[in-house]
Amino acid sequence: MSVLQALDIGLAFVVFAVAAWTIFAHGAFAATVGYVVYGLLLALVWIRLFAVDVALTEAAIGSGVTGVLLISAAARLRAAERAEPEKSLSGLSRLLVAVLCAVVAVALAGVVLLLPEQGPSLAPQSMQRLPETGLGNPVTAVLIAYRAFDTMLEKVVLVLAVVGVWSLAADKYWGGAPGEARAERPEPTLAFLAQILAPLGILVGIHVFWVGADEPGGAFQGGAILAAMWIIVMMARLTEAPRTNAFWLRLALVAGPLVFLAAGVAGAIFAGSFFAYPPGFAKPAILFIEAFMVLSIAVTLPMLVAGPPRREPRR
Amino acid sequence: MTAGVSAIAATAGGGLLPLAILLPALGVLLSFLIGGRRSEWIALGLMPLELVVAVGIAYFVWRSGQPLVYTLAGYTPPLGIALRADGFSAVMLVTAGLIAPAAALYARANIATPQELTEKRAPLVFWTLLQGIQAALSLVFLGGDLFNLYVGLELLTFAAVPLVSLDGRPETVAAALRYLLFALFGSVFYLLGVALLYGAYGTLDIALLAPLIRPEPAVWLAAGLMTAGLLAKTALFPLHLWLPPAHANAPAAASAVLSGLVVKGSFFLVVRLWFDVLVGLPGVIPGTILATLGSAAILFGSVLALRQARLKLLIAYSTVAQIGYLFIMFPLGHGPWAADAFSGGVMQALSHAFAKAAMFLSAGLIAESVGHDRIAELGGAARVMPVTFLALGLGGLSLMGLPPSGGFAAKWLLMKASVEAGQWVWALVMAAGGLLAGGYLYRVLAPALSGESPQLKKAPARGRERVALVLALVALLLAFAPPSFFAFLQIGRPAAGLALQ
Amino acid sequence: MTSATLAGLVGAALVGLGLYGLIANPQPLRKILAFNLMGSGVFLVFGIVARKGAAAGLQADPVPQAMVITGIVVAFAASALAVALVLRLFEAAGQATLDPDAWAKPPDGGAGAE
């Protein structure tokens, strides 16, 4: 057994163990911290699967931003947890559910083991059509060229998520800002971290986006890193979340999907099909769309973490 | 011109297909961006256009007798994504194109931005999310790629859930959360099935996948997972627990859209899955399982509806029951009765959509005018709100399956198919369901027509009553659908239907 | 046993674990956590499918990878909406439970709602 195989098996065990702890741990806060660790380990698994773009996305969004969301929620719900111990399912029900889940897992494992060595793949076609897009990263090509329609609609899903989260504000707070006001004296450790990390993070984020055309990376990953920087700065209370009725905020949130949609319609007019790119213009068009996607993602993710408005609008 | 535009790239009128999805998507973005009172105008302005597009698609499908196809971005499947409109898609698109604006017109009165404010929470959220539902439904009805359909399902969930908690009361927030969790369970299971199908065949395009499907373990597991996920979203028994509190406590216009349209979206995908993708699988046992669950839904839902104290909850449980009827078509997919069964199922989806929407809008008017929706205290209310109760009653007629109504046509077709196929039990269940429906409707209507009339807090607005009435009348008029309508529904059906081995 | 198969098996186990957590754990926040776990398990199944599709000089099929990226973003948005609902529930009612009995209104003119 080679070192790499031993590492893989070890990694698999640890991932499973941390996941099990996330499900069975007693406090929600502890479980959530476990989830963040789990996410980072998962990123390693993705690297072993040679899916580096996915590893970046999992680390940045799956573990990072989701982690912040869940940890702050768990912290706020601690009081609820202590106050009202939940009625849990009876022993028999638990057993039945466990059996059901085991059956699903075993069936899935069986099918996974039956997968052929070399499965059907769209890799050859992806590579074959890659030169038309002018890109070097086939994953980016799938996202913004071959299956652009999916990605554009997914951006609309993000806008709907923001509307949904904001809809939970009380009527009097509508239009106001989420989170707390800027602090007179921001927390020193967090502020220090933010001041060191943010400028660096912004550079890294933009780089990851830009490089994603040809190397692993792209709009989602870069945008998520930028989002994380803004979240850190907000958490350090160095700045406060913007008012939700600010036009610039709404514009930033819809810019990505709107530009993408417009590009799609332009494709119908200039390139014969919705979401097609005129030959020769593909790469610049793709980078143009991605730039706005990065903007939207960098603004949407922190707004989703910040939650519904909780302060009255001042005008 | 990008290379690779093959013969199937687009059929005549195919360009309307992306438009059906992009118009409401644009509406979402603009309503949110511009906000304020204008979000309502944008929605109301785009809806007629969307209806025209839907009718246009139906026209082109009818004229060519073939499904419309559109390949996006010039990349043909399996690498790219295609949209496809057959008879069923077209009919559902038109239905959504009629019910959404009806709900919108109804909602204008009580979800409005007052003069003193630039923007209010409920109106902005409502107008944005309503268009989101339209975009999502268009995608679900027209999608030709299983992952694209997953995005459509997510779009639908995100647009529908916040409408449940629109008024902000804790019960509605709890109902919305439960709905979201069920819906997310459904999405994850569906996505897992998609992964297995891609792993087995390397494509997710429905037209390309169908001929490749073989009864192997991966496909069976995928079929089971995807169906279970979609059933959770369609609230078929026993995964129906989230529906009654969610639909009953949402604002009336939202309930109309949720019960009338949103649950039909995931049902549409179950049909797509079993009748278009999994034709290579022996469909007897899965079909029978689905119809059994449907029967349980009919009986269980109807009995529970009988026991409800509140009108909106009664109507919501009635939805649980009526969804059961939709699944009777599944074991009847092969044989000379297959066309009837399919038409019956589609007719049930359509007539329930219109009838239920009418009933929820009427219930909303009743609740606003009388101040509550407790059935026991609605005695004599029909005499002071005749048009509203007429709409409620006509919708109920369709639910019961009494002629003339679309519901009758649907149940007649399904019963006929069941009897011809020798599967009598479904006919018996449907008959029982019709009786039970009569029971719970009688419970509401009979006292309302007699006894002392309650004091009305305010009279229902004429326009809103008329909207509910028109929807109920459409449900009735479906009974007069000519044979060419049923022929239209068959456009795009593979000849074999649900395979039988 | 290749790393891909191992990842696929871990994915299967995670789906089972996550499903258990989603159904059995009564607290909404734990359900959301379990949903995320389940989702990541499903993504790992996509991952093994991608790795088995290594061809044309690529180590993994890019199409399933793109689907996973889309899925991760959608799962985050879903978690955000769910968390907002849970927090609103807690703020408004002082409790964050999905137990229907807790939300049943006191009898008002008839039997309590189901």
Write a short abstract of this structure:
The complex is a heterotrimer of chains A (315), B (501) and C (114). With 315 residues, chain A is mainly alpha-helical.
Task: Name the features.
heterotrimer, B: 501 residues, mainly alpha, 70% helix, disordered C terminus, C: 114 residues, Helix Hairpins
Structure write-up:
The complex is a heterotrimer of chains A (315), B (501) and C (114). With 315 residues, chain A is an all-alpha fold. In chain A, 72% of the residues lie in helices and 0% in strands. Chain A has a domain at 137-315. Chain A has 11 helices and no strands. Chain B starts with 15 loop residues before the first helix and ends in a 12-residue tail after the last helix. Chain B contains 19 helices and 2 strands. Chain C is built from 4 helices and no strands. Chain C has one domain (3-95): Helix Hairpins, CATH 1.10.287. By secondary structure, chain C is mainly α. Chain C has helices at residues 3-24, 28-52, 62-93, 100-103. Chains in contact: A-B, A-C, B-C. At the A-C interface, helix 1, helix 2, helix 3, helix 4 and helix 5 of A face helix 1, helix 2 and helix 3 of C.
The residue fraction in helices of chain B comes out at: 55-70%
For the biggest sheet of chain B, the summary is: 2 strands, antiparallel
Mind describing the biggest β-sheet of chain A?
none
Averaged pLDDT of chain B:
91
Structural class of chain A: mainly alpha
- Quaternary structure of the protein: heterotrimer
Radius of gyration of chain B: 22 Å
Which regions of chain B have little confidence, pLDDT < 50, spanning 5+ residues? 1-8, 496-501
- What sort of overall outline of chain B do the alpha carbons produce when their principal axes are compared? globular
Mean of residue pLDDT values of chain A: 91
- The number of helical elements of chain A comes to 11
- The side-by-side strand order for the widest beta sheet of chain B comes to 1-2
Low-confidence segments of chain A? none
Measured by DSSP, the beta-strand proportion of chain B falls in: under 5%
Categorize the overall geometry of chain A: globular
The ordered string of helix (H) and strand (E) elements of chain B is HHEEHHHHHHHHHHHHHHHHH
